[in-house]
Fold this protein.
Amino acid sequence: MPADWKIGSRIKNRWEIHGIKRGGMGVVYIVYDHEWKEAFAAKTFQDEVFARNPATANWFTQEALTWINLDLHQNITQARFVENIEGKPFLFLEYVSGGDLSRWIGTPRLTEDLPQVLRFAIQFCDGMIHATAKGVKAHRDIKPQNCLVTEDGTLKITDFGLAKAFDDSELQPAFAGMPGIAGLIILQSQTGMGAGTPPYMAPEQFLDAKHVDVRADIYSFGIMLYLMATGQLPFVGRTGEDFALLHMRAAAPSLIGDFQSLNVIVQTCLAKTAGKRFQDFSELRNILSTVFERETGKKATDPVGGMTLSALQWVAKGVSLRALGRKDEQLQCYEKALSMNPALALAWANKSGALLELGRAQEALNCASRALKHDPWLESAWFNKALSLSAVGRHEEAADCFDDVLIHNPRSDGAWYSKGCAFGELGNQAEAIKCYEQALRLNPLMDAAWNNMGEAWHKLDHPSRAVECYDKALTLNQRNADAWLNKGATLGELGQVQEEFYCYERALAINPADAEVWHSKGVSFEEMGKLEDALACYGKAIEFQPELGKSWFKKGLLLFNKFHDYEGALTCFHRAVARGVPQAQVSVIQCLAKLASP
């Protein structure tokens, strides 16, 4: 792999890299395809893996073909095509921007929400029913990391890497000598070759992965179901051999509390012999649906067929494009979906979100209302309605609207977060902090909530607590430019100038065109007496954001007071006034007076 491939590079002048994720042996590039105008996750192995065993390339290609032949299903990550780049195969996959199921494990979004656990479980079954109908004998690596979750809460099974390899004896040499692949183990036993991820493997899979069937996946699903319910694995070992003994001999603990209704299901999935488990995912789905209907009083969703509605495909494509910042293109996707199905509430809700990002708040509000007309229970529509109300300055109504979201789903971390934002706009920082704390209780990985809570503490004149919050945000996400900016500004107020400028440099490394960072850097230079540097920074801020009135004003003040360039200052003040900076009016008069004086 070329050493100079980094974020911002283009592969073959077509695929622009937006993110890079490396595992033990694999690498995934999050890319935007400038030819197809679409987002993809491009997966391959690292160079040394292919070098160690040339058969790996053949295995990888077979994996890709198996995956692509699964066709379309909303609960399977779609594999689109294989491309050979610089002598290595790349599998281009549908990009799912919401992360994997492991981000939900151990949070109240699952451990306090039996219906949500059941929804994910039913969706998983639908995906596996489709995969087995398409000829997949067994997935062999079921775990939370191989279940992606879209931003609208749809689970998608991914990584069918072992599904083909152990069904084809010609491909098994690819595993010879491999120590493991991103958490997998390869074990040679007397009866055959075992492979998988030890905490989730069925007893028989440790002995001979080639001859297992879908019932081994049902065992792994039982482990995952227990993990979703409790946040903990039923069996904990240190080595592959430890796990083998536990899976073969130990009994799984019983579920308690709200999740007792899943006990029989979990124990049946985890039977030590395959014949005593559920025999396929259709049988398992029927029982899960019965539990869902008994626990919620609502009908479980009907089984999903192999062909996803075309309108929904356009919505999914729009969501992927949003994650890569393709605002206009995502909007076109939602409009295409609505031309096919004008009553599709999800498309109206997502269109509302796209319009918000484009600054068209009133149109966004109208779209959110249309979504709620078609589906009064759609959380994302309530959410975008509240955001739209906030964007048009109706912050009190927005806060009330987030209450409506929380009535529908009290565990909506996004609603708590956005309600905090609304309180922040109203100047009620204490209530904002309470909301951010609720959001973080539900989702401790929300770096934006830590950042905003830092801003609230800063406004309450607690700079040290603010810095602590920014540090937590940055621990979670080193590419949170807002947190770097806010931390820098706060450190500057505390007199830690060297650390302040380090933070600004980190923010600009993420986004060199961030006008707010350039402006803040200019203010700091000015306070240090480095006026030429300050002037240059204000100029950069204006270059990247010509409508930033405060930078025009600060530049004008420097030109007027320090450089005595009254004509240049007058131009800056006029532009500041045009951009709503009221104090610039006085400066205009002062400039005119200076220019008129002999």
Observations:
- Residues 169-182, 188-192 have pLDDT under 50 and may be disordered.
- DSSP finds 27 helices and ten strands in the chain.
- The two ends are 68 Å apart (CA to CA).
